[in-house]
Amino acid sequence: MRTEQLEYGISRYGTPLYIFDIDMLREETERIRRALGSEVGLCYAMKANPFLTEKMSGLTDRIEVCSKGEFEICRKMGISPDKLLISGVLKKKADITEIMDYCGGRCAYTVESVRQFHYLAEWSDAHSVPLRLYLRLTGGDQFGMDENTFKSIVGLVNMSAYLKIEGIHYFTGTQKKSLDRIEKEISYVDGFLLKLKEEMRCDIRNLEYGPGIAVPYFEGKDPETFTDRGLSELARMLGKMRWKGRVTLEMGRAFAAMCGCYLTSVCDVKTNAGKNYCIVDGGNHQLNYDGQIRGMHRPHLRLLPEGETGPERTWNVCGALCTVNDILCSGVSLAGVRTGRTLVFERAGAYSAMEGMALFLSHALPAVVSHESGEGWKLLRARTDTYPVNMPDGIY
């Protein structure tokens, strides 16, 4: 995002502030689609950044929804059920029933467990409505089902008049930097799909796979999986599968990370025991980079206004929380640090704005805005106080 746009955002909305560049979001999504090719579908995992869901519903083939709250966001935005994959490790019966009452067979549903399967089967039988299922295969964690449980669900589906296995869902984690690891996962799923066909005559035609592509959050650390070459290599791996069907890649971070900036202003500077500290009005309750440990890695950042001169020093950038863990970055070399200037943390469009300790110390939630060519600025969320949710109801 251009400097003048960032400075306008600061003057209009103040700090701390999240800005999402919709033009960059579109460019990154189109880059990923070009590198993967037209044969591979794209699914946006909206948990990465729900504020981008409406735009991403037009840029990708579908949206993964992992909670009742996320479903309500999609419903209020008017996103068609045909675009939704209802997922999530926990589906409460009342919640999934309400979703099925609204969506019926228009959306797809993942099956994480035997219990979830029975919820879906019970509703389908009661309403005589076919449902499209994606059975989730575990990657060795709490998500999905192991091979034996998976096969038992296949047998139960075969006895149902209304349920159909449309695909398999497989995801094992995020921030994968190695193409070798992804290749091993694809090979495993390929073998399992063939075995399923041979042993149970279950010919599954769709694979929803989350490759967990790593994003280059820190300077000097550029994972090969995120590059055009890495994405093209991923497409080549998928094309080599012996199983033939439609593959949809489910991603959130890879689409959204590059489009976001987190802006926080310098409010105080000090030197303690020979170390320089820069205190900002934000903190790590509002910004999280996956892999960051007490600010040891340097994220991509800028200091505004640009062009100011001053001594270059090594700084520890700390937030407003009353904890020694509130370090956004440590030991970074910055010139001209003073109160009133603003630090811009880039590549903060995915998870960074969602994973912090938002309620700690009852600080307000920052405003969230977007900018798009032709559309201009849009306030997505005003600055919001959190103290009312940290006190008993009925106190005024």
Structural class: alpha/beta
- Approximately what portion of the residues adopt beta-strand conformation? 25-35%
Amount of helix: 25-40%
The number of distinct β-strands equals: 17
- Rg is 23 Å
Could you spell the SSE succession in H and E letters? HEHEHEHEHEHEHEHEHEHEEEEEEEE
Span of the ends, CA to CA: 42 Å
- Form type: globular
Unreliable stretches: none
Calculate the mean pLDDT score and round it.
Answer: 94
User: Biggest β-sheet, characterized?
Assistant: 9 strands, mixed
Number of helices: 10
Key phrases:
alpha/beta; 10 helices; globular; 396 residues
Kindly describe this structure.
The protein is α/β, with parallel strands linked by helices and 396 residues long. Helix content is 30%, strand content 27%. The protein contains 10 helices and 17 strands. The protein has helices at 3-13, 22-36, 53-59, 68-77, 93-103, 114-127, 147-158, 179-200, 228-239, 253-256; strands at residues 17-21, 40-45, 62-65, 84-86, 108-111, 131-137, 163-171, 206-210, 246-251, 260-272, 275-280, 301-304, 312-318, 327-335, 342-346, 367-372, 376-381. The strands form 2 sheets. Strands 1, 10, 11, 12, 13, 14, 15, 16 and 17 form a 9-stranded mixed sheet that branches. An 8-stranded parallel barrel has the order 2-3-4-5-6-7-8-9, surrounded by 4 helices. Strand 4 (84-86), helix 5 and strand 5 form a beta-alpha-beta unit. The protein is globular and about 70 Å long. The mean pLDDT is 94.
